[in-house]
Amino acid sequence: MKIAMSAKGKTLESPLDQRFGRAANFIVIQTNNMEVEVVDNSAVAASGGAGISAAEMIVKKDVETVITGNVGPNAMNVLKAAKIKIYKGSAESVKENVELFKKGQLVEISKTVPAHYGMGAKQ
């Protein structure tokens, strides 16, 4: 299975980034062999539409699952339209979140955060 995780760094030891659209990087992992591809999030500094741009970039990576902290409504719509499942990761490392996912210990996200949440917007 191919999964993508929002990450603060570029290694499996990097902490999971709790923001999806404004995550520094995405780490795409093939779970059967732990092959890793690091994807710089070109949408991180966008003035608007970061979630949509990040989601479209992830869809092109042909992943089945995303693990992140929070996801906004526009990004969720793009990911759901592509039939990509979204799971709530913990504040642990990317590698630890992969293990939690494999054990079935992550919960699927069904509710989004408000628009512009990653830019500091409040509920």
Explained architecture:
Helix 1 runs parallel beside helix 2 (73-81). Strand 2 (25-30) and strand 3 form a beta hairpin. The chain is built from 3 helices and 6 strands. The chain starts with a strand and ends in a 15-residue tail after the last strand. It has helices spanning 50-60, 73-81, 94-102; strands at 2-7, 25-30, 35-40, 65-68, 85-88, 107-108. Strands 3-2-1-4-5-6 form a 6-stranded mixed β-sheet, sandwiched between helices. The protein has a single domain (2-113), classed as Dinitrogenase iron-molybdenum cofactor biosynthesis domain (Nucleotidyltransferase, domain 5). It is of the alpha/beta class and 123 residues long.
The gist of it:
The protein is an alpha/beta fold. 24% of the residues lie in helices and 23% in strands. It starts with a strand and ends in a 15-residue tail after the last strand.
Structural class: alpha/beta
How many structural domains are formed by the residues? Answer: 1
The CATH topology corresponds to: Nucleotidyltransferase, domain 5
CATH level-two architecture? 2-Layer Sandwich
CATH domain class name = Alpha Beta
Order of helices and strands: EEEHEHEHE
| Helical content band | 10-25%
State the end-to-end distance: 34 Å
Strand content range: 15-25%
Topology:
Layout: E1 2-7, E2 25-30, E3 35-40, H1 50-60, E4 65-68, H2 73-81, E5 85-88, H3 94-102, E6 107-108
Parallel strand pairs: 1-4, 4-5
Antiparallel strand pairs: 1-2, 2-3, 5-6
Helix pairs in contact: 1-2
